[in-house]
Amino acid sequence: MATKIIKIVVLFGMLSIGSCNKYMDIVPDNVAELKQAFSMKTMAERFLFTCYSWIPGGFSLTSNPALLGGDEFWLNSTTNYSQSAYPNWYLAMGGQNSNSPLLNYWDGNAGGTPLWRGIRECNIFLENIQSVPDMDQMEKDQWTAEVEFLKAYYHYYLLRVYGPIPIVDTNIPTFEDPENVHYERQPIDDVFAYIIGKIDAAMPALLPDVLTPVQDNGRITQLVAKAMKAEILMTAASPLFNGNTDYPNYQNAVGQPLFNDTHSVEKWQLAADACREAIEVAHAAGRSLYKWVPPTNMLIQPQQSTINQMSLRQAVTERQNNPESIWVNNRSRAHQPEQGWAFTPRSADPARITNQSLGGFMAPTLNMAMKFYSKNGVPIEEDYDWDYAKRFDLREVPLGASPYEYDLIPGYTTVGLHFDREDRFYGSLSFDGGRYYMSSHTDDKLAFSINARPGGNAAATNSPTRYSGTGYTPKKLVSYFNVIGENNVFTNYAYPFTMMRLGNLYLLYAEALNEINGPGDEVFDYLDLIRERSGLDGVVESWNEHARNPNKPNTKEGLRQIIHQERAIELAFESQRFWDLRRWKTAQDELNTPIFGWDYRQNSPQTYYRRVVMYNRTFTQRDYFWPISINELRRNDKLLQSPLW
Description:
By secondary structure, this protein is of the alpha+beta class. 35% of the residues lie in helices and 9% in strands.
């Protein structure tokens, strides 16, 4: 942890910011080298990007807890995915422990980023940047503000993982005996106040939203800071941290309660104000929900459903001139050979791929397929026009022209669950009997057809390891610019991981407003903007016309459930749900159910579409926070173990 004197070593390898690879991570290991690191602007700039390098990788298939640590994805059971290789998946299977914690962000072990070291290096930068001779003061102030934000963000990440944490605002002296310095956890409200205070202090010196050159995309701006401040305040206002009565005796060494067990509506108001301010700044900077414009090579105008689906896909995968993007991590990109094929059924062109090393093994669960709405914009179990009782019955797609021909294969037999769903379902998921539109298609009627049963182009039997274990793959995370060329050469369109987009911000604002005053016009306005982009009617209209309980949106509790499901659908597979379930304190309800998939090795539709239990999970109250390793507790006698561990 940061209380240790860490001998800082030179880090080899290039740090990519944007598409630029000119920066090497250089961190000095003694005072002489420290002076050298800040002897000129070019050297200080390298240190600046080293401070950025500690942002955890969102597209890391093995170390991002929000990818495999919840209920959105599951791996196939026949491949040896070891705990050391996939600690995030073992986290989902209940493998967390205090002896050798998985995804250890405290010590930097078992797949975790050592965030205390990142904070230490931010402090080194802040202590020395003013001494650089060939920089003007405005630039020094801007870089200082960026690093102050990063330091606050790393505290926030640790807080989400461990709950109350120490505040490390300055480094211990270089030659201090580490045995003399023992940090301890601080009350959760104090930690949030410290984080927000740092961001507020940094914002006046930050650049406007538009950054040049292109390689600076991903750096901290006014808009990034305001949007992330909104997210952090939403976390602070949520039940896990606002009025949590589960830990009444959890106190630090001086007897301070580390959780405030009194609920505060004011925290929701602060969050709402921050969301509104961030949205206003985003709009002023030209940000808007992504709306896909068909390319000029299309022979005919595509269906509106194709436009709706592509708008959602491109909101996540478009890297150039994306009006919805607010903050991206350019160091973490969906690229070959990992994410380029890990999300894809036999790669971007399932009709042509034969290479057994390619094929999607990051499999969305049947649990998530159930979350998406019917075409009427309400949950399938609540829609009286959608036959929920027959959701697992087989149906044949009509031959010829029909309402289904752009989403399902004409004449194909699939399951009732795949019929009459909203466009976000078809834009987010690929499945047996589905269609797959890509940039090589000049007519959306020519989209690829997916056959996931044995012998089909996306079948599990095509590869010994690279296949979906549930029958689904995340179409949403596959760029439609990916191409299979001659000899199965895969050209991947690498896009950065999205930390924050405007659609997320709209949903956060609607959530905060509902928690303050319940249903209201402004809440519905922002929810309906999201729904309109996907071709759905507004919340009130949809529930009035199609839901068994049309009054649900008219109560705070009912609208809360709707907002939670809207976030699960709109932000599916974007590493948001994992954290949402925790801050809402609903993980014990959502994650104590079995993981389901289809019986994907069976040949006939009747046997393939048998729902099978892939894993029976357990999530207990202690799982809301990671444990600290026993070794760290032994070294620091003031440090409390995480609650209930």
